[in-house]
Amino acid sequence: MIRTRTDDRVRVVTIDRPARRNALRPDDLDALRSAIADAETPVTYLRGAGNAFCAGADLDVVAGLAGGAGPDGDETADAASFARRGQRAAAALADADTVVVCGIDGAARGGGVELALAADVRVATPAATFAEPGVEFGLFGAWGGTIRLPRVMREGDALDFALSGRVLDADEALRTGLVSRVVDDPRAVADEISSGEPDAIRAVKRRVRDRRDDAAQADAEAEAFAALVRAHGAEIAASRTE
Q: SUPFAM superfamilies attached here (predicted)?
C-alpha cells in the first residue's frame, strides 16, 4: 500500500506494509509510480513505514512467477513483466520533475536498494542497513540496479556489494557513496532542500540527470541558466543589495 500526503512544499510518499517490511507487489509498484509522477511539489520525500525502508519485491509474488505465469495463470504477469514494472517505478523517481529525497531508516533490501538508487538524494539514519541478498538464492536486482549501482558507487564497491550479498551499515553506505548523509531525521533534509527556489531545484535535477553527450548537456545547461535569469531577474538584482 502506498500512502501520500502533502506538507507545504514536500510531498510525503510512504510505502506502508510494515508487516512484510514494506515488500512490494505489482500493484504497489504501479501505485508508487503514480504517486511520484503526480507530485506537484518541488520535493518528494520517500520513506517506509515501521522499522524498515523496503524489503524489495514480495518474494511470494516472485515464487509464484517461477513457472512463467502470474497468479491465476495470468501470462502477462511473468517474471520479466514484474521486473519491468519495478524498472518503471524506479524510473519514475529518477525522471520526475520533483526532486526525490529517500529517507532510509532500517532495512533496505534488494528492490528497496534499487528504489533508493533511483532517488536524487539518499539519506540514512544510523539504524539503516543495505543489502542485495538475491544472489544468495539465485537472483539479482532487476529494477535498474545493475545500471545505477556503478553510477552511485565505484565499480569495485558496487560489484563487491552486489556479488557478496553482505549487509552494509549506515557508515559504510556513507563511505561508499550509497548515501550522502547519515542523520537522525532524514525528513529534515527534504525540508532543507525544499527551502530553495522551486524552478532552480527542478533545473538542477534535470541538468545533473541529463545523460546526453557533453556538448548537448552544456547547451542545455546554458539555456536553463538563461531561463532562470529571465524568470528571476528582480530577485537576483535585489540580492545584490543584501
A: ClpP/crotonase
| Count of all residues that appear for the chain in the document | 242
Model pTM greater than 0.85? yes
Cβ neighbourhood burial of 137 (10 Å; 0-12, 13-18, 19+): exposed
| Distance of alpha carbon 98 from alpha carbon 198, whole angstroms | 9
Q: Are 176 and 157 in contact (CB under 8 A)?
A: yes
Average pLDDT over residues 76-82: 75
In the predicted structure, residue 241 carries a pLDDT above the cut 70:
no
Strand, coil or helix: 169:
strand
Can you tell me the distance from the alpha carbon of 193 to that of 197, in angstroms, rounded to the nearest whole number?
9
Pairing of strands 99-104, 2-7: unpaired
Cα atoms in the Cβ-side hemisphere of radius 13 Å centred on 48: 31
- Determine contact, residues 43/99, Cβ cutoff 8 Å: yes
pLDDT band at 76 (very low <50, low <70, confident <90, very high): very low
* Phi, psi (deg, nearest 5) at residue 144: 95, 5
